[in-house]
Amino acid sequence: MRTMSLLVLAALALAGAARADPPTGEDAVTGVPAIDAGAFRIASEVLYARAGTPVTLFHYFAVRPDCEAAQAEVSLTQAPAHGKVAFSDGAQPPVSGLTPLWSRDDPRAHCVDQLVATRDAVYVPDPTFAGHDELVVTFQEGGASFTDAIEVNVMQIKPPPPGGLHGIRIRNIAPAKTGRSGD
User: Fold this and answer.
1) What is the reported pTM?
2) What is the separation, in whole angstroms, between the first and last Cα of the chain?
3) What gap in Å lies between CA 123 and CA 33, rounded to an integer?
4) pLDDT at residue 106 above 60?
5) Distances (CA, A) of 137 to 27, 70, 74
6) Percent of the chain surpassing pLDDT 70
7) Cβ atoms of residues 76 and 181 within 8 Å
8) Which of 13-22, 37-46, 89-98 is least confident?
9) Helices (H), ranges, the chain
10) Which of 86, 111, 144, 172 is the most exposed place for a label (fewest CB within 10 A)?
11) Which phi and psi angles does 36 have, rounded to 5°?
């Protein structure tokens, strides 16, 4: 039986992209889209990143029915112009958001309660860059392959004012209670 692979792209919210730690299991449950590599279709993803801060691009799942890793290769076919990409081995639960990647009739469905091997990619934009960057990744399994174009919108985020946010006043615009009946 031919093993199918799944690509999970972790599109982290701008606030979540601020961390420099390696990806953890929480990345796999943040509502990331899954692409069925068995169909070998071309996809395009758009992510947001803070300048100079690492952001997880994806967790690639190549899993056999015994929940072990299947042989697969991930390569950068077009490097980003304004940053660097690093690949690493990882382990994630095979879910997209809170939804299992495989249907109940898939022989890998029982793997959903385990951490399974992944091939992960992290993008680090140049610290002084702000704007649009793009990269292309190719995934190969057996004799088949597919390509994914990933767009990254890099933003410069200014630090909070000196002394934090204490100098900012917030007005309460809720109507005041008058004590009259019906209020």
Assistant:
1) 0.65
2) 68
3) 18
4) yes
5) 20, 18, 7
6) 63
7) no
8) 13-22
9) none
10) 172
11) -80, 105
Neighbours of 54 (CB within 10 A): 22
> Token digits for 135?
């990269």
What DSSP character marks residue 158?
A: P
Average pLDDT over residues 17-39: 37
Q: What angle do CA 101, 106, 74 make, to 5 degrees?
A: 55
The third-level CATH classification (topology) of the domain covering 5-155 is Immunoglobulin-like (2.60.40)
> Two tokens at 53?
């801060």
Output the CA torsion sign for 46, 50, 51, 56.
negative
- Could you read off the pLDDT of 112-124 as tens digits, one per residue? 999 999 898 999 9
Question: What distance in Å separates the CA atoms of residue 31 and residue 149, rounded to the nearest whole number?
Answer: 19
Residue 166 reports pLDDT greater than 70: no
The full set of domain ranges for the chain reads: 5-155
